[in-house]
Specification:
With 274 residues, the protein is of the alpha/beta class. It is built from 10 helices and 6 strands; from the N terminus they run βααβααβαβαβαβααα. Strands 1-6-5-2-3-4 form a 6-stranded parallel β-sheet, sandwiched between helices. Helix 6 crosses helix 7 and helix 7 runs parallel beside helix 8. The longest helix is centred in the last third of the chain and has 24 residues. It is globular and about 55 Å long.
Length: 274
């Protein structure tokens, strides 16, 4: 397992450790696993059913549970108070993917990507305590993943030692975004660098065709340059909020109205959608 940090020197206070899932079992210690307050799982693509997120997202979920297994240290019953207390919380991220149709349940309501990730874990790993899994259902891309994870969950819950899980193809941009947003000064102007310790866990690029993977990697490469520019232009948490509500297609009121008007201008079976 590779832990990337300056000068390849590891210390107890080292931030931004990058774990590789392929060697996780042999390299992550019980102490390290128990040290995480929460594991954040990034979504990415509409589920095909309630408990069936894309395969590469399932892989991220499996990796998060593996960390919990290391923390449990061989215990059979994770519901026992002593075991549940040392297992990190899991926060599944994402309402959906921008510009991708939302999966819908039979009651006409969306199946959020975070809901599908949580359902996958609870169905595949019935030993995992329900009270330790959470869903963030507001974000539609990686920037909003980080923003709403922090503002709606980690800031409020007091989770400070965080492990962020995503695929290898998505890791570089994810790390740049989470480092930017979780280090951004809050409304009080205080820099949270001393508050947050972020580590990262990269999972293998499975569940994508070679063509799809190349397309994703090209998208990530283009997005990395944009993140670098945005992090300079919007340095504080309030700046990032202003960016979202004024510039982002899914959080600017005027953009949402314009988008819906455009969609409703196309008749569906002779009747405008509502």
């Amino acid at each position: 397992m590779t832990r990337h940090h300056p000068n390849n020197v590891r210390s107890k206070n080292q931030k931004n450790i990058l774990y590789e899932f392929s060697s996780l079992q042999n390299e992550m210690t019980v102490e390290e696993a128990r040290g995480f307050d929460a594991i954040l799982i990034l979504g990415g693509g509409a589920p095909t059913s309630l408990s069936a997120p894309p395969v590469y997202v399932q892989n991220r979920c499996d990796a998060a549970v593996k960390v919990a297994e290391i923390a449990a240290n061989g215990a059979d019953d994770w519901s026992e108070e002593g075991v549940a207390r040392v297992i990190p919380n899991i926060l599944c991220l994402s309402a959906g993917t921008a510009h991708v149709p939302q999966a819908m349940s039979l009651d006409g309501l969306p199946i959020w990507e975070a809901t599908a990730s949580a359902a996958y874990i609870l169905e595949r790993y019935p030993n995992f305590p329900e009270e330790k899994i959470f869903a963030e259902t507001t974000s539609y891309d990686t920037i909003s993943n980080a923003f709403f994870a922090r503002t709606s969950h980690t800031d409020v819950a007091g989770w400070r030692n965080i492990l962020i899980v995503t695929s290898q193809f998505h890791m570089d941009r994810t790390k740049a975004i989470f480092d930017w947003i979780f280090q951004a000064p809050g409304l009080d102007g205080i820099m949270p660098k001393s508050l947050y310790r972020l580590s990262y866990l990269a999972t293998e690029n499975i569940g994508l065709s070679d063509e799809a993977l190349l397309s994703r990697m090209e998208h990530e490469k283009k997005g990395a340059a944009s993140v670098k520019r945005l992090s300079v232009q919007y340095p504080s948490l309030k700046d990032i909020w202003l960016f979202l509500v004024s510039k982002h297609d899914f959080y600017s009121a005027s953009k949402l109205v314009a988008k819906t008007k455009k969609a409703n201008a196309t008749p569906l079976n002779g009747i405008n959608s509502v």
